[in-house]
Write a structure and sequence with these properties.
The protein is 37% helix and 18% strand. The protein has 464 residues and is an alpha/beta fold. 31% of the residues are buried.
């Protein structure tokens, strides 16, 4: 740990300066009774000093260009025969492997003879204290691209040279931040792997990253691909949607701690109308694994149609807009040959079916489409409590479970007793109130007392 003392100490000094500056400004704004300005100051202070940290956009250029163009084109054009995705699945313009994400390239200079090196290990830690380990395939390598990163996180990395005699040499260390939205995943010998997280929800907030994935078949993944799924993504539950009975089962792992289930599905509207009993089993199976804090991947053969139909229903339930349902479906095109595609017209019949199935819902409601999907799931056998629990787990802001009483066309509350980890503001306050309540003032004082105590403890550690 002491190898990082100098690096950590510089960060601590900067954070301590931020802390004491915030105390001074708080006292000033407290006298002015202007708490809104104080919180605006805190936001500015948090970003101060971050500009010198490298920022990595996880979306490759083809995906970034497509996402921007689709938002403009599809928002102003409801003609589903119009599709732009093939413009961006162009290997001559954008290169190959367009279904892979961008990553952070790390370089280093070895200090020991290659015959003395047992391994090169890259350890990456994000700001949620999740640790990822990577090993370059060749001990003579001097660079590595860290991929499969989650957007809007800060990562610290250390490159170590581990020798056979037990010596560990630190070759490189640093920090970077990530941005972007679409989290594509690189898994060797497995195509079209995506995290369904990151999409904004009509309920508020976004779909949580790192819990649910969609992909093509896993049968041919390499040992490196297995490490990506199991160790770095935490995927231990596989739902196979294929009809092919002779296909071998999962290669993720066997025995306790691994979960596998197979349920053949149809694609498109046929799936929604004739495989609905399977979708109920699917969602209950997935919900059971989420309750156990297990991450899930579902797949068909190439991750487009049968996989796309289940993804469509789950993402709709989580509150994705019609635009984003179309964009996520079309993203599968980037994993296909340039003469193949998955245009948004392929899901037009499914969207129409879900809407027509909910005639009592007001189409002007901002949550209209989400409620249509919720009604579909209720009609095929899911309970309101199960749906609220699933949504609560999968949205990154705390979800106050609500379901619709369709017999009276009113919205009623349900108690969601499942604890849901959520990112919360440091202090909650109502912008419509002219003055914060006395309890808010007490909370502010308590928060700053806790922060001051924490920094005092850090100072003691940093001086040793």
């Amino acid at each position: 740990m002491w190898r990082y003392h100098k690096y950590l100490n510089s960060i601590l000094k900067f954070r301590i300066l931020q802390f004491y500056l915030s105390i001074v400004v708080y006292k000033l704004f407290y006298q002015m009774k202007n708490y809104f300005l104080f919180f605006a100051f805190l936001v500015t202070l948090q970003s101060w000093g971050q500009n010198d940290i490298e920022v990595v956009n996880i979306e490759n250029r083809a995906v970034r260009d497509y996402m921007a163009d689709a938002e403009t084109t599809y928002s102003n054009n409801n003609n589903y025969s119009v599709s732009i995705v093939t413009k961006y699945n162009d290997i001559n313009k954008y290169g190959k492997k367009l279904h892979w994400p961008n990553g952070k390239e790390v370089t280093w200079v070895p200090t020991a003879p290659v015959e003395d090196i047992a391994e090169i290990r890259i350890t990456v830690t994000d700001d949620e204290n999740t640790v990822y380990n990577y090993n370059p395939s060749n001990k003579t390598d001097k660079s590595y691209i860290i991929r499969n990163l989650i957007p809007d996180r800060t990562y610290n990395y250390v490159v170590e040279e581990r020798l056979y005699n037990g010596t560990v040499n630190t070759l490189k260390q640093g920090v970077f931040r990530t941005e972007g939205q679409v989290r594509m995943i690189q898994v060797l010998n497995c195509s079209n792997v995506r995290d369904i997280g990151g999409w904004p929800s009509q309920y508020g907030g976004r779909v949580r990253y790192g819990r649910l994935y969609r992909s093509g078949s896993l049968n041919r993944i390499t040992s490196e691909g297995r490490q990506a799924f199991v160790q770095n993504m935490g995927v231990v539950a596989e739902l196979d949607l294929r009809y092919e009975v002779n296909q071998s089962r999962t290669t993720l792992g066997e025995g306790e701690g691994f979960y596998y289930d197979r349920r053949p599905h149809d694609a498109g509207l046929k799936g929604l109308t004739q495989s609905s009993h399977n979708y109920v089993k699917d969602l209950r199976w997935i919900l059971d694994k989420l309750r156990k804090d297990k991450n899930v991947d579902w797949h068909c053969a190439i991750g487009c149609d049968r996989c796309g139909a289940l993804s469509f229903l789950i993402e709709g339930l989580l509150g994705l807009s019609e635009l984003d349902l179309c964009r996520d479906f079309e993203l599968s095109t980037f994993s296909l040959a340039s003469n193949n595609k998955r245009p948004r017209s392929h899901i037009k019949s499914m969207i129409d079916y879900v809407k027509k199935n909910a005639p009592s819902i007001d189409s002007s409601d901002p949550q209209y489409l989400a409620k249509c999907f919720k009604k579909y799931w209720l009609d095929i056998g899911m309970t309101p409590e199960e749906l609220d629990e699933f949504i609560g787990i999968m949205l990154d802001d705390e979800y106050h479970g609500q379901h619709i009483d369709f017999s009276q066309n009113v919205r009623t509350k349900t108690n969601n007793t499942t604890p849901v980890p959520a990112k919360r503001n440091m202090v909650e306050y109502d912008l419509e109130e002219e003055q914060p309540t006395s309890s808010t003032q007490d909370n502010l004082i308590e928060v700053f007392s806790d922060i001051e105590e924490m920094y005092n403890q850090i100072l003691v550690v940093s001086q040793h």
